[in-house]
Design goal:
The protein is an alpha/beta fold. The chain is built from 14 helices and 33 strands. Strands 10, 11, 12, 13, 15, 19, 21, 22 and 23 form a 9-stranded mixed sheet that branches. An 8-stranded parallel beta barrel has the order 1-2-5-6-7-8-9-24, surrounded by 4 helices. A 5-stranded antiparallel sheet has the order 25-26-27-32-29, with helices on one face. A hairpin with a 2-residue loop joins strand 25 (about 540-545) and strand 26 (about 550-555). It starts with a helix and ends with a strand. The model is unreliable at about 1-20 (pLDDT under 50).
């Protein structure tokens, strides 16, 4: 009997260990299992688990479970909880949203708290975490003007009610759209920092790559949390991701090239790839090269090389979609245009933000609006700078000269350009107009200079939809996660698992599997990451060496792993160190060329290469 009890105790300890491992897993995903995905939820949960994904997040919509005061309908959620239990995937429900008889929720707390109590009592720790609202800093989700103090008025009594009913349930602050520091601080001032167990954000990089500032943004949030006594609480990303929608990337580039009087087959496109400023104008977000087939050549430069860049009719300097440029090199950019250089700003407002290095050498971004537009002889405006400018446009209209080009996919845009700062000899040529209610403004066009400036600048006020293509999504997923984990983020719920693919809009293509459940490259990349960096791994450190980014850690069994990539283009990495395996971000054997002894080289690019069984990877 004693022998059996000892073995039973050991068995229970092992089970507890497995439960703890699942709870400590950093890997999650968002899915709408309770909505349109319900019919295949069991299949999806199995696919999640097969990829090493231990957590799933979806809405426990109040208006769906309580259709009238006191009328509860939990059948669908009961089945989903059973499915998740069977798949060994933990649920993070979003407890949120108004009902018509008690809106807004923060002003009708008895009714709201009855919903909270009913859910907690029904499911207990079968739903071990609950998130209170979703993107409450947006009016579309909060349903009135967002206010951090008002969110705190909802969160504080909710936290108390949950802990009263079941202290073991973890309460997660509602994931914010972006990292709105002022909003978050307002909620903390009102007491929200002490009414949560976990802080959650949705730090999407819509027009940028994670290497630029993701770690710094997390560090700033951590400092704010510490200021309000919550510095030791976990940070989760309850959403983050990139869509793979087709045909949105460089939709207007052919028209703008024509306006610049350039032919692709004679054009060398020049992109910035400067690791010192973490500035990359050719990346999966921009997709410039994919949108312009037949370019003569593509090359990258650092900012220090701009002064020597040829300013001729066959060289095109491409800016990124981030609306940002380093202050130190703005004079060099202006000189390039003065010398006759041709520049393309593919989206947004050029020079809207200034990138600077502070006294410590750290990068900082400052909004400068139109400060530098006069010296570049360009002018822009939006609905918040010029009265009568619409917030939305009803349709596009091509300038007649460009009518032969297809219109880009329809996107809402609100950056317009004009010739208000032109000098004698200059002219501004419209390419595309935005029209709405008697308003007609230029969304895209080309500045032709023949004054003290002699070059040409093409501009476009239409932002892309953040689409990166299937390949880019697969590359960005593990890079985002490793950088975030290295910055101290404890869990990420990637948005999302399954794409609807109902249309060509971004929202329909965030999934890492297709609508038919066929995996995209990002699914394989996620599966590879969970195998290379399994739960319980330790010592993760992320660093940059020149153009390379390198992360290293130890698996739970002690095996050392090194991961290497570049945010921009490909470079040849020469290294030394004995290793056991080298695989790419999709789990396939990577091409490594031995060069003698323990020395080797490989092509590093936006897709991670993982080296296992290596004691120390030296980049020469």
């Amino acid at each position: 009997m004693l022998f059996r009890l000892k073995h039973l105790s050991l068995f229970l300890l092992l089970i507890a260990g497995f439960v703890l491992a699942a709870e400590d897993s950093p890997y999650g995903v968002c899915a709408h299992l309770q909505r349109w995905e319900y019919d295949r939820a069991a299949e999806e949960l199995a696919l999640m688990k097969a990829a090493g994904i231990d957590h799933v997040r979806f809405d426990l919509d109040r208006d769906a479970v309580e259709t009238a005061p006191g009328k509860w309908h939990f059948a669908r959620w009961d089945l989903l909880v059973e499915m998740a239990d069977k798949a060994d995937v933990a649920i993070l429900p979003i407890l949120a949203y108004d009902v018509k008889w008690a809106a807004p929720a923060w002003k009708h707390q008895p009714e709201w708290l009855n919903y909270i109590e009913t859910v907690i009592d029904r499911y207990g720790t079968r739903m071990p975490y609950v998130e209170i609202w979703n993107e409450q800093n947006l009016k579309s989700f909060w349903h009135e003007a967002p206010d951090g103090a008002n969110y705190a008025k909802l969160l504080i009594p909710t936290y108390r009610k949950i802990k009263e009913r079941n202290p073991a349930v973890t309460v997660v602050y509602g994931g914010t759209a972006g990292i709105p520091m002022d909003y978050i601080e307002a909620s903390f001032k009102a007491g929200a920092a002490q009414a949560m167990d976990v802080m959650a954000i949705h730090p999407y990089r819509w027009r940028d790559v994670p290497e630029t500032s993701l770690a710094e943004d997390v560090a700033a949030l951590r400092r704010l949390m510490a200021k309000y006594g919550a510095g030791d609480k976990p940070i989760w990303f309850t959403e983050d991701g990139y869509p793979t929608a087709p045909g949105m990337g460089a939709a207007l580039v052919p028209q703008l090239l024509a306006g610049l009087e350039m032919n692709p087959e004679r054009t060398t496109a020049v992109f910035f790839s400067d690791p010192d400023y973490r500035y990359y104008s050719e990346n999966p977000v921009t997709q410039f090269s994919a949108g312009v087939p037949g370019l003569k050549a593509v090359r990258t430069i650092r900012f220090g090389e701009l002064a020597a860049l040829p300013a001729d009719a066959e060289t095109l300097l491409v800016l990124p979609e981030t609306e940002t440029f380093p202050a130190e090199y703005r004079p060099a950019l202006l000189d390039y245009v003065r010398r006759g250089g041709r520049v393309l700003s593919p989206a947004g407002l050029p020079l809207y933000f200034e990138l600077r290095k502070n006294a410590k050498g750290e990068l900082e971004t400052a909004q400068v609006n139109d400060k530098y537009m006069p010296e570049f002889h360009m002018g822009w405006y939006t609905f918040w700078t010029r009265k009568g400018t619409p917030e939305k446009i009803a349709k596009y209209e091509h300038d007649p000269k460009y009518a032969a080009f297809p219109l880009p996919p329809f996107l809402q845009a609100f950056r317009f350009f004009d010739g208000g700062n032109l000098k004698p000899g200059d002219r501004f040529e419209p390419v595309l107009y935005g029209v709405a209610d008697g308003f007609r403004g230029v969304l895209a066009g080309v500045y032709h200079f023949d004054s003290d400036l002699k070059g040409k600048v093409a501009v476009c006020g239409i932002f892309g939809n953040g689409s990166v293509g299937a390949q880019g999504q697969g590359e960005l997923l593990p890079r985002t996660m490793l950088i975030a984990f290295g910055a101290g983020v404890e869990r990420i719920y990637w948005y999302s698992f399954r794409s609807t693919e109902w249309d060509n809009g971004a929202e329909a293509h965030f999934g890492i599997v297709h609508n038919n459940l066929k995996p995209k490259p990002a699914y394989d990349a996620y599966k590879t990451l969970t195998a290379m960096y399994p739960p319980g791994s330790t010592g993760l450190a992320v660093r940059r060496q020149g153009e390379l980014w390198i992360a290293n850690w130890r698996k739970p069994d002690g095996e050392r792993v090194e991961a290497v990539w570049t945010p921009g283009g490909e470079v040849t990495a020469t290294c030394s160190g004995a290793f056991k395996t080298a695989i790419n971000h999709l789990g396939k054997v990577a091409s490594v060329r031995k060069t003698g002894g323990d020395r080797f080289e490989f092509t590093a690019g936006p897709g991670i290469v993982y080296f296992t069984g290596i004691q120390e990877l030296k980049i020469n």
